[in-house]
Amino acid sequence: MKQETLDKKIKISNDLMFYFYRHIDTDINLDELAVHFKINKFYMHQIFKEVFGRNIYESIKSIRLQKASNLLLTNQYSTISKIANECGYSSQTSFIRAFKERFSMTPNSWRKGGYKLYSHNILLQSPMAQASTASFEQIQPEIVKMPQQTAYYIRHRGYGYDKSKQTWQKIQTWIYQNELKDYTEMSLFHDNPTITPLDECHYVACVVPHSQKEIKDQRLPRFNISGGVYAKFDFEGKRGDLLKLIHWVYHEWLPKSEYRTTTKPPYAIYHKNHYLNKEQEFAISFYLSIRF
Questions:
Q1: Is residue 287 part of a domain?
Q2: Are the C-beta atoms of residues 198 and 126 closer than 8 Å to each other?
Q3: What is the mean predicted confidence (pLDDT) over 212-218?
């Protein structure tokens, strides 16, 4: 496949995903989207699955239910019907059916504490996270406004350490080839690892060049990471602690904070990358998109 063709497919797919996150509370009309992007509807479905490894309908459903799972915890006084509407469901019945199919419990059961058991079972999929003794109760997040950032990236499916390490080694090679001196290393979490099986999560390793100079090697695709208001959590730890931190942020800090999260994916900025050092130690700032 020509690089130009591949780049076009990736750009269209990323633009579609960005649209879904921004308009997940509406009735998304795929016929209109195909017209908007000036491509055949069936071709649109084909390239999206080729790039993301799952079809458009699965992705939309996943984003809707990830949003709902958080709103059920942070919007304690909202009715199930209102939350269903906020997540783009036309009826409470269809929402409950989809939620139960995804989480094996009703939205009401989730809200009453079922989320803790579900999240714990996800955590059990990572032996390193189970072994973590990290504590987060002393962390006081800073509320910050972040700009939109343009990132070059490699995406893969699954949160396995070896696969992620190989991805970061490729990113590092690309950085050396382009002689980048000033840049930020980031991980973007399209899938919430507190509620999505780890082998199904999409892991996105990103590099954001600080300079506006032209990148010599255009092999890596790029996309924009949304700006906005975020809660920023600074933490240093070892392999296994990061997943546990994300669980704490979503299921301990967020429900007590009086904030709501948005559909913008969270991300981590690495000050020290555990995939690129022998000690497997990291220092990060984890950013969760919020609204009051």
A1: yes
A2: yes
A3: 73
